[in-house]
UniProtKB/TrEMBL annotation:
Residues 1-22 form the signal peptide. The keyword Transmembrane does not apply. Gene3D superfamilies: Periplasmic binding protein-like II (3.40.190.10). Pfam families: SBP_bac_8. InterPro entries: SBP. It comes from the Bacteria. Keywords: Periplasm, Signal. This is Polyamine ABC transporter substrate-binding protein. The keyword Cytoplasm does not apply.
Length: 344
């Protein structure tokens, strides 16, 4: 991508200037593997190494596993920067596993939307991407594009609805939004369970994984699936006529955060890495590669990419975050109630 040629050139200049970072420094991070890790390398890791001369060691670990490692290594952590997508930074900050971040130490912090930097000084790292949950729909076969979360219950879609099990993180967020528009809350998920029962009676199906969603759209005439914006892009790349739309009542958001680990001596280099992740260049790259929503207000996207993500101040105003600590505290009970509901 052209915007990264300038980063590469600045990296060469930095190396020629022999900065303090270009002396064999090393930081250790986690990334999430697969296509995400490929994009992470393209958008942040490779430009960072070119600009600083430092080496980035990558441990492939999803959020829950990375957090378990962080807890187990509390006295001697291996990570300098740790990434989460399930809200683990909230608990990590409370437990003293993450260091507070002075916003002044990040040159790009001022350009972040407020929600992406609200608790830096408490130890919760900035959100550098958002996986937005809305509705993926078949642009050719659906009678019309859904615009509201209540549209999922429209009998016009009947047996063309695909729900995702709440053991899946995106499935959980979609369910909680359906519950909310039906009058429920995090203290009462029964309205959502009742809505699921109604959907199943009308012929909706439930899947557990994203590849199963693709199968339903490709082979079984699925029209609408509450899920994440990035997967609409995945389906379209597979040749399926799909698009993503936000529900007018709000858009649940999975925050992808970059956090400064406590007890390490690489803070300056680690903060530089985090600062690159929240830069408009890196976030535009993530949006282009994976269709994640940017959190930096200065990001400029093409019309094609912007159509697939939650983009701009008006759109991001509709993002909402269900409290990850409440979800985690209730997950087992909710999954049990869900399983009883879908078994009826």
């Amino acid at each position: 991508m052209k915007i990264y040629s300038s980063i590469a050139l600045s990296g060469v200049a930095a190396l020629m200037a022999t900065t303090a970072f270009a002396q064999g420094g090393t930081i250790t991070i986690n990334s999430f593997g697969g296509a995400y890790e490929e994009a992470h390398r393209q958008c942040v890791i490779d430009p960072f190494e070119a600009e600083t001369g430092a080496t980035v060691q990558i441990v492939t670990a999803y959020s829950a596993d990375a957090f378990a490692q962080l807890r187990a290594q509390a006295q001697a952590p291996q990570f300098d920067v740790i990434h989460f997508s399930g809200g683990q930074e909230i608990v990590g900050a409370q437990e003293g596993l993450l260091d507070p971040i002075d916003p002044a130490s990040l040159s790009n912090a001022a350009d972040l939307y407020d929600f992406a930097k609200s608790n830096l000084e408490a130890g919760e790292g900035p959100a550098y991407s958002i996986a937005a949950i809305g509705m993926i729909y078949n642009t050719e076969n659906a009678p019309e594009a859904p615009s509201s979360w209540t549209d999922i219950l429209d009998e016009a879609y009947a047996d063309h609805i695909v729900l995702t099990d709440i053991s899946n993180g995106y499935g959980m967020l979609g369910f909680l939004m359906l519950n909310q528009v039906q009058g429920g809350s995090l203290d009462d998920i029964q309205p959502g369970l009742d809505a699921v029962s109604s959907l199943l009676e009308n012929g909706a199906i439930i899947v557990s994984t994203s590849p199963e969603i693709q199968q339903e759209f490709a082979q079984n005439d699925a029209w609408v699936a509450p899920y994440a914006s990035d997967y609409a892009f995945t389906l379209r790349n597979a040749g399926l006529p799909t698009a993503f739309v936000q529900g007018e009542e709000g858009t649940p958001a999975s925050f992808i955060t970059a956090n400064l680990v406590a007890g390490r001596d690489n803070d300056e280099l680690a903060l530089k890495f985090i600062d690159m992740e929240i830069s408009p260049e890196a976030q535009a790259c993530f949006a282009d590669a994976l269709r994640y929503t940017p959190t930096n207000s200065k990001v400029e996207l093409s019309e094609e990419v912007a159509a697939d993500v939650v983009y701009g101040p008006d759109a991001v105003a509709g993002l909402l975050r269900f409290d990850p600590t409440v979800i985690e505290a209730n997950r087992a009970d909710w999954v049990d109630a869900w399983n009883r509901t879908i078994a009826q």
